[in-house]
Design a protein that fits this description.
Elements (H helix, E strand, L loop, with lengths): L2 H15 L4 E6 L6 H10 L13 H5 L10 E8 L13 E2 L8 H19 L5 E4 L7 H7 L4 E2 L5 E2 L7 E8 L18 H5 L5 E3 L2 E2 L5 H7 L15 E3 L3 H4 L26 H5 L3 H7 L9 H13 L1
Parallel strand pairs: 3-10
Antiparallel strand pairs: 1-2, 2-7, 4-7, 5-6, 8-9
Enzyme class: oxidoreductase
Pathway: tRNA modification; tRNA-queuosine biosynthesis
Organism: Pontimicrobium aquaticum
């Protein structure tokens, strides 16, 4: 067994031990196919007011510009599918990924452990950990690494576990054995396109971010445009519609990460509780949650938009 194989196996075994669903590896190089797609998406203003998407165009497409001398992109998936969802079906809804502790902290910690393991067991390896807060095209790298294919809703999909998982990367200056992409299994299915409440999936594999409920309820700091009144399907933070209707998510299994378990009060809150939420309750229920991104003022704006 050569060193590349040995090191690759070591990393994948440790990733599994740390609780990651799967691990795939790609060569760190310019993403040729994604470049024109990203450019077109930006030129069509599909990023709305997410100005940060225009920054670091080169870095988004070339990991060697993010991590000098990098040779490998190690892509990792971490399941967040919950075993229970909100009890009151008439209550405003929160995307499942935001039920527990903010994933940035949970995953960053695991990635640091993985990088430390690599350095302890392989030697001097330099690298950086990324959890969707840097200019890295997570889904493109995960697909390139054979972890799934990008579905018509533009999320990564796998036949075994669907799409309810986070994607993260370690970009390192160590050459490893590289995985190959898998095939697309969406077929003629258009469930996600048909179900999108705001018609944000403008064509298969293209999502207009500026029409997405997640964009309106999390990213947009201004008032939500009134023409979208009545189209939010009761989502107050994020939206899971395109994933909920996807046939591959029949295979989703509950996660086993205690930190992703929701605050005990979250699932019990009624429609009335949400409509009367106070800042104290917000701080208590979402103490370590990704929902803090929208702030109390943002969440109450969203709830009011659903109600009016």
């Amino acid at each position: 067994m050569n060193n590349k194989t040995k090191y690759t196996n070591l990393i994948k075994t440790e990733a599994k031990r740390l609780g990651f669903l799967s691990c795939g590896i790609s060569q760190a190089q310019f993403l040729e196919e994604e470049a024109p797609r990203l450019e077109k998406w930006l030129n069509n203003n599909m990023h709305g007011k997410m100005q940060y998407m225009e920054n670091h165009f080169d870095k988004r497409l070339d990991p060697t510009k993010l991590v000098e001398g990098s040779k490998s992109v190690v892509s990792l998936l971490l399941n967040y599918f919950p075993s229970e969802i909100q009890k009151d079906t008439s209550a405003p809804k929160i995307s499942k990924y935001a039920y527990g502790t903010d994933y940035h902290f949970v995953i960053k910690d695991k990635l640091k452990q993985l990088l430390q393991f690599i350095q302890d067991n392989i030697g001097e390896v330099a690298g950086r950990a990324f959890v969707d807060s840097a200019p890295v095209l997570d889904k493109a790298w995960a697909a390139k690494s054979g972890l799934g294919w990008i579905g018509k809703h533009s999320n990564l999909l796998t036949q075994q576990v669907g799409s309810f998982y986070f994607i993260a990367e370690l970009i390192i200056d160590l050459a490893l054995e590289y995985d190959t992409p898998t095939t697309d299994h969406c077929g003629t299915c258009t469930a996600c396109i048909d179900a999108c409440p705001t018609q944000a999936i403008t064509e298969p594999y293209v999502v207009d971010g500026s029409k997405c409920i997640s964009y309106f309820t999390i990213e947009l700091k201004d008032n939500i445009p009134s023409e979208f009144k009545g189209q939010f399907d009761n989502w107050m933070f994020g939206c899971d519609v395109c994933q909920d209707v996807c046939p591959w998510n029949r295979f989703s299994k509950p996660h086993n990460e205690p930190l992703f378990n929701p605050h005990p009060e979250l699932l019990e809150m009624t429609k009335k509780d949400w409509e009367e939420i106070t800042e104290d309750t917000f701080k208590k229920v979402f103490k370590k949650s990704a929902v803090k991104r929208t702030k109390f003022s943002g969440l109450t704006r969203n709830i009011k938009f659903l109600k009016d």
